Amino acid sequence: MSEENRRTATAEHAYPRADVFVAEALGISRSAAKKLLDEGRVTAGGAPVKAARAVAAGERFEAEIPAPREADLTPQDIPFTVVYEDGDIAVVNKPQGLTVHAGSGNLTGTLVNGLLYRLHSLSSINGVVRPGIVHRIDKDTSGLLVVAENDAAHRSLAEQIAKKECAREYLALCEGNFPEERGRVETYIGRSPSDRKKMAVVPKEKGRFAATNWQVERRYREGYTLVRFFLETGRTHQIRVHCKYLGHPIVGDPVYGAKKQRFHLSGQLLHACRLTLTHPRTGERMTFEAPLPDYFVKVLSGLTEI
Asked: Residue 185: beta bridge partners?
């Protein structure tokens, strides 16, 4: 393997499983990390590492990334906004209802299909089904995400996210009135024991650490609060789960929200509004913003601010 296809990473703290650490360190999915481990492509001290093995703080791993192969995906002209693009990174504003990447048996109609149509190249680190994808937002969440157009950019962005140097801010309309102006939520998030399709706050040994900071933006007489969230970690459905945990689910959330919805919505009122990162090539600190989508603005305009 060339040096271009080898990655080294040192654990800043202990991890319950090697696949969890490798996924976070390389900026890839946990299933992709497990595949590398199962194939013997990840070593520590020259010995292959098992996916379920615990990782001690300070351990140094070396990963061998297989040579990329062409993705069997069809480029499609899918509507979304490219906020910025320069050959290294692209920042896009994803509309609500658009899935970021393909799942099993479904290789069309995703943001990735649109990226293949709109951009000249995408990184290969995250596999053939997720080219360019460094981080994700849920299908029914709108807003900003950064895409890597080459492997060097992908490695830099993944490292920034792992080291919490990439700032991600969200706006959400939540049920109820938050009792304080700002706060912080620290829990462990894992699969719900009652429904494997959902995530939930779970005991430490069954989940991954998740931290979210929040501050109130506006309060409404009708019993809603517009809240700005600052992600420290990026667990699946993190903000949605934390809002439910706080007793203030996001308006329109079909999974974690109220069963009876006042508004006719296609999904949760959660928008990735601001993204700050360091450019992988130039080192410039860059901030991007995306305005609230029209359906979100329409709901807010019908409420009375306190």
From this structure: 212
What CA–CA distances, in Å, run from 5 to 1, 26, 117, 155?
A: 6, 12, 26, 11
The distance of Cα 8 from the centroid of its chain, to the nearest Å, equals 23
294 is a catalytic site residue = no
One of 1.20.1050.10, 3.10.290.10, 3.10.50.40, 1.10.10.920 is the CATH number of 3-64, namely 3.10.290.10
β-pair partners for 216: 227
What confidence tens digit (pLDDT) does each residue in 183-212 have? 999 999 998 988 888 999 999 988 999 999
d(CA 123, CA 151): 5
What pTM does this model have?
0.79
Q: Of residues 19, 88, 138, 151, which has the active-site annotation?
A: 138
> Measured between alpha carbons, how far is 109 from 251 in angstroms, rounded to an integer?
26
Strands (E), 76-133: 81-85, 89-94
Token pair of 30, please? 């946990």
Start and end residues for every CATH 3.10.290.10 domain found in the chain: 3-64
